[in-house]
Amino acid sequence: MSQGEAAGRGTAKPQDRGWAWMVLLAAVLLQGLTLGFPCCIGVFFTDLQHEFQASNSQTSWFPSIMVAVLHGGGPLCSILVKRFGCRFAVMLGGLLSGLGMVSSSFCKSISQLYLTAGLITGLGSCFSFQAGVTVLGYYFVRWRTLANAVASTGVSLGFTLWPLLSQYLLDEMGWRNTFLIFGGILLNCCVCGAIMRPIQLASGSLPQSAKPEEEPGSRAEEAQLSNGASPHHPTLQQHTRRTKCFQVLQKYLAFDIFCQNKGYQIYTIGVTWMMMGFALPHVYLVPYAIHNGVEERKAALLISVIGFINIFIRPFTGLLSGHRVFTGRRIYLFSLAVLLCGLSNFICVISAEFSVLILYCVILSIAMSGVGALTFQVLMDVVEMDRFSSALGLFTILESITLLIGPPLTGFLVDITSDFHYVFYNSSFFLISAALFMGFSFCALEKKNKLREASKARLDNPSRYQYSEMSTEPKAENQCPPAVEYITSI
């Protein structure tokens, strides 16, 4: 049953009220169960190293694969959402996540963990998380910014509770039984998916938008047939396959948007580069603290501090960024938050005392709240909603590449030098450079758009500019330039 058929069978609910708030609650829990889950892997880092006699680099591949697949499975999730709807994708993701963690409890080598916890659990989390983000875009319009910010508090809840629960279960029953219990907990994603019942889609939404993309290939095939070519002719079949392949790439990976929309292009490149350093503190903060003599329970508490502060800061960030003053300018708030994340890492280089690490977690949490609350809202600002699912697919698969290679490369550097400080040096470099790139690039793009609008206004109304410079100044002052929205394809 297609998304459109599912929507037709479902009851059309008013947006921004009613059942939409139940869907938002499900999205909060969903993000806590999926996107917040990888944060607890650092708690098991030392135990897994000892169990499988693995190096820092080998052990870091396990969380890297999980996070990379979580973000990079976007195209597959887009296909599921378009074909079966968000509810199906979320529930399938819950089943895969639970299966992956249950299988992980029986693993005999670190490479088996790459497959079970890394690939299977990561893919399941991807389906549940990304379908949950997509459905919010249809249930909320007026309060979309607030809804995204509130939903992202689920990540904060996950950051707070997963490490504490992990450390408790690890102490009581070991990592194998803990992973078995985690499999049961992740099955609750299916319950969240059941709440996300289909909504009637407006015209121009995902199912309808697919139709015009199929027309060019259909017209080309019809033209060949009208010229007398047989439908079974090898040349025509090859051309048809290429056309269909191009249609699939355009539909699910949004390469056309990436090539035409400069705002989307800049944002995707910036976030992809940023992810090389963004995940490093989450993977290595607990091992770094333990390596410097901090007790294991206190080390696990560091991640929980980050999550606890995020619970309160993220909604405030969402409300602030939703103000009309920041319309079209949320990218600058996002860049500022990324810059602060990068600068905060230097605190860990100064000292590894527990009190200093707590200060680091507080500052990092404030910065992360801005990144988490604005990541998908900025993406919704730079692309139109009817192409959001496709844009999200390409966006996440590109950032998953850097998420995959970032921690293992840094772990290899730590293995060679035996110096954990390189974790925070690397993280700061990638975060600060990405923030500066996005900030300055969008500033230049905004100036370019303003000049283009001014030039277009002169061409449309040449009579205004026939007079002397003195006579045109008052008129120019009375006209406000149009608000810049990074949705326009360039």
UniProtKB/TrEMBL annotation:
Tell me where on the tree of life, at the top rank, the source sits: Eukaryota
Q: Which PROSITE patterns does its entry note? A: MFS
Q: Region Disordered: which residues? A: 206-238
Cellular component per GO, a single term: basolateral plasma membrane
UniProt keyword annotations, A-Z = Membrane, Transmembrane, Transmembrane helix
Pfam family of this protein, just one? MFS_1
Main location, first listed in the record? membrane
Q: Give membrane topology per the record.
A: Multi-pass membrane protein
Membrane-spanning segments: 21-45, 61-81, 88-106, 112-139, 146-165, 177-196, 266-287, 299-319, 331-351, 357-379, 391-410, 422-445
Q: Where do Basic and acidic residues bias regions lie?
A: 211-222
**Family matches, as InterPro entries:** MFS, MFS_dom, MFS_trans_sf, Proton-linked_MCT
Localization per Swiss-Prot or TrEMBL = Membrane
Q: Name one GO molecular function term.
A: monocarboxylic acid transmembrane transporter activity
> How is this protein named in the record?
MOT6 protein
